[in-house]
Write a structure and sequence with these properties.
Elements: H1 2-16, H2 18-53, E1 58-62, H3 65-70, H4 81-93, E2 97-103, H5 105-116, E3 133-138, H6 144-151, E4 157-162, H7 163-206, H8 208-216, H9 221-256, H10 261-264, H11 273-302
Antiparallel strand pairs: 1-3, 1-4, 2-3
């Protein structure tokens, strides 16, 4: 009988404050969708780091005849065969080095034509203007400075470049976007909590006569508070369900179908469905507990029991 009464009171409360209940559902849905999206963005950045950092190379570019005339780092002339052998020998002895690939001037010219063949500059270049280089794959991409310290400024070396630096700028941008999403999410959570508190206050005020009678007949505090707390929890849970729907739909229509980014952007290793599905229980639990706790603390102040 008591359970039936509580459930009936939940339905009455939701219907009485339909507009505010709808506002709670929408705000909770948006805030938790942003919450889930920020978690997935963090997973995506971590996945991309693991994928791309494993592929980045450190490039040791060697001086050519053109550099000897224009680049201060190559003031002593183009790289010699003895210098190349010494550089290769030193690389072989380094424990941080996983693999070394030599790229000749002809190979560099071929790769440049493949990538920038439409550029006006491409027609004026010749193979002897390209730089020989050693492409070095490190066991740990964070150890770039070891290579830079060993070879930067050495005779025959024009420059040492780390591809990881380019990726760091990209991941810095992605992390910045992720923090911006979290800031908006925090703002939306505050709005949702304020709406929940207001909804509970209005509901308690509209039923103050019923709660007064219940106190007179000896109803416990929890028995009086339960319908209000469960109203907030139900509204939050609906919002959480909507947020889960947003995330699933976003993964399906943006990555797999619709925009189909997984097919158009083959260079990006997108997170899988497992990453999305593991976030849904957390979102649902948050959508249930957050409104219930907000309602509980609001009732301690606004409902005298």
């Amino acid at each position: 009988m008591r359970a039936q009464f509580v459930l009936s009171e939940i339905g009455v409360g939701l219907r009485r404050n339909l507009t505010m209940t709808f506002a709670v559902v929408v705000s909770v849905a948006l805030s938790l969708a942003l919450f889930g999206g920020s978690l997935l963005m963090s997973d995506q950045v971590t996945t991309m780091k693991g994928y791309w950092y494993d592929k980045v190379n450190v490039s040791v570019f060697l001086c050519n005849k053109s550099d000897a005339e224009s680049d201060p780092n190559c003031a002593k002339g183009a790289v010699t065969e003895d210098q190349k052998k010494q550089i290769m020998s030193d690389l072989d002895e380094m424990t941080v080095v996983d693999k070394v690939t030599y790229e000749s001037q002809d190979e560099a010219y071929k790769h440049y034509k493949e990538q920038f063949g439409d550029s006006p500059l491409a027609s004026s270049l010749t193979p002897d203007q390209m730089q020989e280089s050693y492409r070095i794959k490190l066991k740990d991409p964070e150890k770039y400075q070891v290579i830079a310290t060993a070879f930067d400024g050495r005779d025959g070396v024009q420059s040492v470049q780390d591809q990881k630096g380019i990726l760091d700028n990209l991941f810095g941008l992605l992390n910045g976007m992720n923090w911006a999403a979290r800031a908006v999410m925090a703002l939306m959570l505050v709005v949702a909590l304020m709406l929940i508190v207001n909804t509970v206050r209005v509901s308690a005020f509209s039923r103050r006569r019923e709660t007064g009678i219940m106190r007179l007949v000896g109803a416990s505090g929890f028995y009086i508070q339960a319908p209000f707390i469960m109203e907030a929890a139900v509204a939050g849970l609906i919002g959480g369900g909507v947020a889960c729907g947003f995330l699933v739909a976003a993964r399906y229509f943006i990555i797999d179908h619709g925009l189909a980014l997984s097919e158009k952007l083959n260079l990006i290793n997108f997170i899988g469905w497992d990453a999305v599905l593991t976030k849904l229980p957390l979102i649902l639990a948050t959508s249930l507990l957050m409104p219930a706790l907000a309602a509980f603390f609001a009732l301690r102040k606004y409902l005298k029991v």
